[in-house]
């Protein structure tokens, strides 16, 4: 299960599970990088 992602901006995002990781990553993108949107599969592809 992937629960960690490092955004190219340097922000490290951690979730308790993949669902939370996807939700937190999408929220980070909306807040810090308006206009950048990634789906679940794309987020989990780059997560560790």
Please sum up the structure shown.
46% of the residues lie in helices and 12% in strands.
Helix share bin: 40-55%
Number of strands: 2
Weakly predicted, low-confidence segments: none
Euclidean distance between termini CA atoms? 8 Å
Mean pLDDT, as a whole number?
A: 97
Organism: Nocardioides aquiterrae
Protein name: DUF1059 domain-containing protein
Describe this structure in words.
The longest helix has 15 residues, at 18-32. A two-stranded antiparallel sheet has the order 1-2. With 48 residues, it is an alpha+beta fold. The chain is built from two helices and two strands, in the order E-E-H-H. The protein is globular and about 25 Å long.
Keywords:
single chain; 48 residues; alpha+beta; two-stranded antiparallel sheet; 2 helices; globular; DUF1059 domain-containing protein
Write the layout of secondary structure elements.
Blueprint: E1 4-6, E2 12-14, H1 18-32, H2 40-46
Antiparallel strand pairs: 1-2
């Amino acid at each position: 299960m992937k629960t960690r992602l490092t955004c190219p901006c340097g922000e490290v995002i951690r979730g308790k599970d993949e669902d939370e990781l996807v939700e937190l990553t999408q929220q980070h993108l909306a807040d810090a990088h308006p206009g950048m949107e990634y789906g679940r599969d794309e987020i989990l592809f780059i997560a560790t």
